Structures are given as structure tokens and as C-alpha cells.
Amino acid sequence: MNNPPDVSQDPKEYEEYAHNVQKHVRGYLMVGGLLLAFTAITVALSYVDFGARKANIAVAMFVATLKAGLVAAIFMHLAAEKRLIYRILIFTGFFVFGLFWLIFLAWYDYPVFH
Amino acid sequence: MEIPYTVSTRPDTGLWNAMVGIWLFLASEVMLFGGLFSAYIFLRLDAPPGMWPHGLLNVPVGTMNTAILIMSSVTVVLAWAALKMRKYRAYWWYMLATILCGVIFLTVKLVYEWPQKFDHFGAYIKPEELGKYEQYLGNEHAAAKGLPPRLEITGHLHNRAALNDPNIKDYEVALDPLNADPTSPAMDRPHFFYMPPTDKIAKIEKEDVQYATMFLPKHSAYFASYFTITGLHGMHVLGGVLVFIYMWLPVSKRLYQRNPEHLANRVEVAGLFWHFVDLIWIFVFPLFYLL
């Protein structure tokens, strides 16, 4: 499911190459179908009562993360990428984590209105 | 001077340059949307009971738009694969499908979803007057069922002039199904299908109203974050569509004839942006439409 190799100028090699890309195309279509199925599942699960709204949110976010993971890994080729890209993303992940951590800090910093 | 490394890879990074560029850009986009999503979480955690509305958006339409974006993500990756196989004709059709998906998504948002909200009215009742409107709110029923309190009466505003004219003393509202029949168990949870306002008209005295407005960003923290995030997301969709149109026009065919791999790389980079926009929507959809 990685990136197709670069096209070759040699006609004989090209045949094999085109066949290879075709295999990837089947994978992309399958992932597309899977994403549509997950969308239907998300909608259906939102009408199931899991006891608390927090539980519903957790379930929906879990499915959304799965979907986002599929998009990132397959469509965006992150399943097999060069090291530099991963390095950029590690920094991004670190700062996004910091951003969401701020909510947590601000929450406990809040005057007691509740 | 020719721009280096548009097709061949740079020896030190192992990548062609635009690939590094787009990922740096996407990293900054993650921070942009991350800021808005963290604001959403903060506002939502801080919302008093009954102040974070549910079931106000049209779920089937939102689901359809989600499916359209996913399909466009597939077509753009197929367009790129077609270029890699040097099939320009197939590329052209996949690209056209992608552009159409983007245009449909935006049209649904701008022509249907948003205007419908701008045309919907809500009035928050003063806490001390809630009992007076119990027949529309059903708070005793809600409390017995363990549901959050209902503080707002929503529906279609008949006398729109009431919003600005101080001489008009009350709002005449064609009630939404929830307010028309608040004690019905069918109204305890949001419905999948959109239910339009009923024929039942309620008069709400302005004196009893704490705050009344159409469903605009100023209506609530919910709609403020909804319009901000979907608006910014919509602008990204628009940007993506414009780039795809450029890559679909004859000007790109000339690039294809000169250097097909260069066009394939351009499509890959634009596709990465498009997948990212899809990825954002995957979170926006449940957070605003379903939960």
C-alpha cells in the first residue's frame, strides 16, 4: 500500500509499472469504500444511547480518528514516507499537544463559577 | 533560471522540494485548525447546562456532504495515479469529478445549509420566566427524564420586524417540533431527518426574553464556533477547487506534454492539501452535526 514507484522510460518496464499502479488504485478504492462505511457507522452510533453524552463523544471521536488515520496513512502516503516528513510531523504533534494541554491548564485556572 | 528539484529528488532530503513545502504548510494548517478546535472544546466544556444545542443541523445533508468529500478524495488520488500511468484522458475526467464534488459541497453549504440557519429564530427565556413558557419547554418532563434544561424556544419568526422595532411587544414564532410538543418522548433525542417548524404559533413577550436572535454567529458559542470552523474549512475547499481547475485547464496539458512527471507531482501536492481538508471535515462533521 506504499507509493507506486516512479515511472520508467523503458517500454518493457513500463508495462509492469502500470500494472503495479493499477494494484494501488484497487487499494485506494477499497479505502474510499471503508471511509464511507465508517461515516454511516458514525451517524448510526450517534443515535445509540451509551449512557452518557461523554461516552457518545468518545465513541464518535474514536471512529473519526480511525478514519483520519486511514486518510493520512493511505491517501496521504504517510504509511511509507521519507524521514524528513516524519520529523516535521513529530514537531507538529508536539505543538498541537501543547495547544490542547493549555485547555487543561486553563480549566483548572478558572475562578469557581461552576 | 529553472526551479531545481521539481521532479528529481534533492540528495540531502531525499524528496523533491514541493513535497517538503506542502508538509511544512500542512503543519501550519494543523496549528491553525488546532487552535479553533481547542477553542471549541473550551467553549463546550464551559457551556452551562442547556446552553449547548443539539439537533439543530440537518444530519442527512451533512452526511451527504461528508460522503461527497470522501469521494473527491478518492477521485483526486485516482487522477494522480492516472497521470503516473500516463493516461491524460482518465486524469482529465477524475479531475473534473473532483472539481464537481468540491463545487457541490460548497453549493450545499452556501445555498442551503447556511441560509436555512440565518432564517431560523431562537429566544432564550429569562430564568425567572421559564415557568410561564412551560407548555413550550417541558422542563418538568426534561428534569424527570434526566435531560438538560430547556432554556430556548426556537422556530420560524413570523414578525421579523420584531427583532429591531421596540414598539412590537412580542415575537410570533411558528414553533419547532420540540417546542410544539415538548413532553413527547419522541422529542427527547434529536432526529436523523430534519423536522421543519410546525403550524403551532407561540407569542413570546419580549419582556420575558433574555436574548433573541436568528441563528447567526452571535446566537451562541455553538453557532459562533460552527460558522467560524465551517467557514474557514469552506474557504479551504474553495482554494482547493481553484487549484484543481488550473490543473485541469489546457494550460496544464502543455505542462503534461513537456514534463508529465512535473504535473503528476503538482497534482500529488494539491491532493495532499485536499486530503487534509477532508481530514478536518471528518472531525467537524460529528462534533457539530451529531454530538
Structural topology:
The complex is a heterodimer of chains A (114) and B (291).
Chain A: H1 11-46, H2 53-75, H3 83-109
Helix pairs in contact in A: 1-2
Chain B: H1 17-46, H2 59-84, H3 88-118, E1 121-125, H4 134-137, H5 139-144, E2 152-157, E3 170-175, H6 177-180, E4 201-205, E5 209-214, H7 221-248, H8 250-258, H9 260-290
Antiparallel strand pairs in B: 1-2, 1-5, 2-3, 3-4
Helix pairs in contact in B: 1-7, 1-9, 2-3, 2-9, 3-7, 7-9, 8-9
Describe the structure.
By secondary structure, chain A is mostly helical. Chain A contains three helices and no strands. Chain B has two domains: 17-47 and 54-118 and 220-290, Cytochrome c oxidase, subunit III, four-helix bundle (Four Helix Bundle (Hemerythrin (Met), subunit A)); 121-214, no CATH class. In chain B, strands 4-3-2-1-5 form a five-stranded antiparallel beta sheet. At the A-B interface, helix 1, helix 2 and helix 3 of A face helix 1, helix 2 and helix 9 of B.
Output the keywords.
heterodimer; A: mainly alpha; 75% helix; B: 291 residues; alpha+beta; Four Helix Bundle (Hemerythrin (Met), subunit A); elongated
Number of DSSP helices of chain A? 3
Topology order of chain A in helix (H) and strand (E) letters: HHH
Uncertain stretches of chain B: none
Instruction: Specify the structural class of chain B.
Output: alpha+beta
Mean pLDDT of chain B: 92
Number of strands of chain B: 5
Order of helices and strands of chain B: HHHEHHEEHEEHHH
CATH superfamily of the largest domain in chain B: Cytochrome c oxidase, subunit III, four-helix bundle
Brief digest:
The complex is a heterodimer of chains A (114) and B (291). Chain A has 114 residues and is mainly α.
